[in-house]
Design a protein that fits this description.
The structure is a homodimer. Helices cover about 40% and strands about 25% of the residues of chain A. With about 250 residues, the first copy, chain A, is α+β, with helices and mostly antiparallel strands. The first copy, chain A, folds into two domains: about 150 residues, Jelly Rolls, CATH 2.60.120.10; about 80 residues, Winged helix-like DNA-binding domain superfamily/Winged helix DNA-binding domain (Arc Repressor Mutant, subunit A). In chain A, helix 3 crosses helix 4 and helix 6 packs across helix 7. Chains A and B meet through helix 3 and helix 4 of A and helix 3 and helix 4 of B. The first copy, chain A, binds a DNA duplex (30 and 30 nucleotides) through helix 7.
Amino acid sequence: MPTPRPQRPDPRANPIADDGSEVRFCSTCAFSGACVAAGYDKAHLRDLHVLVEHIGPFRAGEHIFRTHDPFRAIYAVRAGLVKTVTVDPEGNEQVLGFYLPGEVVGLNAIYPEHYPCDAVTLETAHFCRFSFPAISALAARMPGLQQQLFRLLSKELGMTSLLAGDHAAEERVAAFVTDLGERLAAQGFSGTRLRLSMSRVDIANYLRLAAETVSRIFTRLRDQGLIALEGRDLEILDPAGLGALARNVRER
Amino acid sequence: MPTPRPQRPDPRANPIADDGSEVRFCSTCAFSGACVAAGYDKAHLRDLHVLVEHIGPFRAGEHIFRTHDPFRAIYAVRAGLVKTVTVDPEGNEQVLGFYLPGEVVGLNAIYPEHYPCDAVTLETAHFCRFSFPAISALAARMPGLQQQLFRLLSKELGMTSLLAGDHAAEERVAAFVTDLGERLAAQGFSGTRLRLSMSRVDIANYLRLAAETVSRIFTRLRDQGLIALEGRDLEILDPAGLGALARNVRER
DNA sequence: ATTCCGTATTGATTTCGATCAGATCGATGC
DNA sequence: GCATCGATCTGATCGAAATCAATACGGAAT
């Protein structure tokens, strides 16, 4: 029996999300909502704009920061994909998260004042770098920005406690795919046709499963007609069905 | 062979941590460091003090807030013990965390704007209630307070990613005990003689293990001479040995 | 094309912790 | 004291996912 095949995702689906204008921000900027929506005047916007540093490109496999580096900045992904990983004393890696364009990396370093993980790009990536002392000082003058930082931190808290739950392997994988789709959709990409730029090993590690288990579950989901998958190109064929599997992981 | 028995913890070990003076805070207050240490003047301290509402006592089993309640406030534990739990659509409970005196409950509600979990007291408890709009407004004028809120959020992020890792049951339990001891010590209690006010079921649920497994591991740790345990009274006999087991969970 | 090598899939077996079942302990009330 | 009930502990069995092992795929270099 033939299994469904996905169409190739649009190669333009992952551009650098920056419209380049002087006092406006990347359309997907993690802070744009805090500023533009709150109706800040040009002076405030300029303050924020000035403290941003556009960095990149980083090629796949490069480090943005490493464990124990002193915490100085948070990084908003402009384009590309990043993972954060910890390495325990025995050398076991643990993927903490994947970050898409418009999302912010490094918030978990605030308390320890050192990055508690490595941030590694999985495909060519660009970032906005925000000095943390500068952005928190500005946040004191821009309540909307302060609020946005609180929200980003709290959101990330919610993310981790989803995966911290104990769930069957199939539920985890379904939740992972559903979540990725939703996050991509939130950033204006297709929520149903996407590219898994991370390896199966990384996915498995993130989900606290063996790579073989992830592989088996992907084929099972494909046989059930919920997804189409060829290599790293994924299409969600039945979002409702997949969401039903993910329900116990995500809905609370 | 006789197994070691703990001495009873000092019953005074868990007082209401409030010295009662007008413009000073509970000695264990989660925000005291942000204020007193930063040398704020009386006016600022009074602002913070005014927005605090002392609530309690709550008896064991009472709810501070419930899932889906609109988010209005964060709660600092003054005395007692709280757990936060989610309930999935099938009714499975999931303990997200335990909160000791001096710690803050409710931060994960900022982003969704509704509490994503129930907060339930496990023993008689008192709280300081901080209206979130009020405290974040004040934070904009008190950089030290803003910083403290960021740190609390970031700290909680670090906590959850510890338990999110995949670790052997014994490592989890060892890490749990070690962590509890350290957190109690940080609040001025004994770090080696403590009372597990939560049930074995709650501990197991928090660690994503079966209650039977937790029980077995406690006896194993006792047989190894690492802990003494009688009912809910625990003494850490060999902090280094226990820490070695916990090392892969905690050290990164 | 062909080789090479890292990545992914598929199959066989093992293992750790869950589940099922029963015993024991401890606090409370009669 | 004695009965009762919930919580905890201990033992026996089961099962989902890990591990071990081998094969297949796919892109890059020759």
